[in-house]
Amino acid sequence: DLDSRVKLQVGLCRGKKLYDKREDMARRTAKRDIERAIKEQNR
After folding, report:
1. Alpha-carbon distance 20 to 25, whole Å?
2. GO MF terms on file (predicted)?
């Protein structure tokens, strides 16, 4: 079966660095606070 071929993708992943995690958490918290403020304003 030389006619059938398989496409294979191999990757090596590294975890996020600590500063990346902190930045991500800060961004998420800010977004959540903004959403909450908009929600409160619409009431």
Report:
1. 9
2. RNA binding
